[in-house]
Amino acid sequence: MPSFTWERAATLSQDFRIFNLLKKPMLSKLVVEKVWKKPGQGVVKINFNTTANGRKMSFGLVAKDHDGFVLGGRASVMDKNVQAKWAELHVLEESISFARTKNWLRLEFESDYVSLMNRLTRMKADFSTMGHRIQEILKLLDPFSNVSFVWPLRCYNKAADYLCDWAIVNNCTKDFNMDYPLEIHDIILRDAIN
């Protein structure tokens, strides 16, 4: 009886290639599209991110229109020693300020910091210091006609990620319009093509 069970298991394993890493699996892997996702018509999407290095924090933000064209952005470094959640919240505020100076009305903010995006999309009574600060920042959105918050996969935020690293390495601040830095050109181009 045990040899029959073993033979049957061996046959099934070979038929279905279960736990056999030498052969191609019968079920294909789920393919995830890893490119920037375009917002709706007339919406400006602002991707933002932060990074920290010791007592310095840097951030990058890139604004694109519904066709994927870069409308502007900012990279900056600051002498701040803060936790990641406070750094991301600061960059959200910078992103809102940046959008206000450009007079954009329909916005989609995108960050790969899950905790912040969850707090922004699932607002409920939050009496913490962070919740209070979020409420203050959300009041800055009053002039805009349409605002949404999106949590993408990390691979969608490549340009903002690169700007963070670039700012901290070069220890500088840079604002740009459609004349974005050559350093992110390839990243932007790859996203626009795909």
* Helix-and-strand structural type: alpha/beta
Strand order of the largest sheet: 5-4-1-2-3-6
- From N to C, what is the helix and strand string? HEEEHEHHEHEH
Spatial extent as radius of gyration? 22 Å
| Unreliable stretches | none
Domain RNase H type-1: 55-167
Pfam family, one: RVT_3
InterPro entries: RNase_H-like_dom_plant (IPR044730), RNase_H-like_EbsB-rel (IPR052929), RNaseH-like_sf (IPR012337), RNaseH_domain (IPR002156), RNaseH_sf (IPR036397)
Protein name: RNase H type-1 domain-containing protein
Description:
The protein contains six helices and six strands, in the order H-E-E-E-H-E-H-H-E-H-E-H. It is an alpha/beta fold. Strands 5-4-1-2-3-6 form a six-stranded mixed sheet, sandwiched between helices. The mean pLDDT is 79. The chain has helices spanning 2-16, 84-102, 114-121, 129-139, 158-170, 185-193, and strands spanning 44-53, 56-64, 70-78, 106-110, 146-150, 174-176. 39% of the residues lie in helices and 21% in strands. It is globular. The chain has one domain (44-193): Nucleotidyltransferase, domain 5, CATH 3.30.420. One of its GO terms (molecular function) is RNA-DNA hybrid ribonuclease activity. Pfam families: RVT_3.
